[in-house]
What we know:
With 210 residues, the protein is an alpha/beta fold. Helices cover 57% and strands 13% of the residues. The protein has a single domain (4-209), classed as Rossmann fold (3-Layer(aba) Sandwich).
Amino acid sequence: MKGCLITLEGGEGAGKSTLLAGLRNHFERSGLDLLYAREPGGTPVGEVIRTLVLDPRYRGIAAETELLLMFAARAQLVREVLQPALAAGRWVLCDRFTDASYAYQGGGRGVDIAYIAALERIATEGLKPDLTLLLDISVSHGRARANERGDSDRIEVEHDDFFERVRSAYRARAQAEPHRFHVIDATLPAASVLQAAVVAIDALRKRIAA
Ligand code: Z5A
């Protein structure tokens, strides 16, 4: 049986963590054995990279350094977790993946897309999600939600125009790959966001089973 990779993406305050908790609860009860991963992170070395790259003390990290750190963590996650799990037929739900680098480092920071595409080939060896759930929300609405959480990491302190570019990049990717992306209106109540995600995942399950 073929394993499947589902990824979760969105900007500031979109509600990924809330949705993830809802999906865990839903699929535990409905018997789909999902493996959970996150980026940057998801492996011992990836979690060290996450701590480093999000630490607000390192304001001077260059955009290219940030990009390389994201892809270093990803290269490890792909080899240590994703490839073996998918080869064993497991379903994996990953909190962010390569689309985040195109959105944040490409859109937000303005790093050349050709650099990102080259690193993608090295780090992922062609691994692409079967389904990407994109939680879409305006920057002002999302940031208002995120501000209620308190402490900000090194990327969260960026200005609104940075997050506008991130959002545009995500939306452009979703438009370019409508068969892979499922865009969810993240301003809906949490229960409706969860319902929309479950419907999309169930549709993928039916497609794979057919
Ligand atoms: N990053 C990158 O730059 N390049 C890369 O390649 C990768 C990542 C992989 C960490 O990501 C950072 O790494 C991130 C992008 C960068 N930087 N930024 N900014 P992360 O995914 O680990 O962290 P995050 O972006 O902060 O995601 P999060 O923790 O899942 O937060 P969230 O999306 O804001 O979710 P939340 O905590 O569930 O929701 C925020 C608040 O809204 C909270 O109070 C909820 O109760 C509330 N909420 C949630 N849903 C709803 C609904 N539906 N209605 C009303 N209120 C809601």
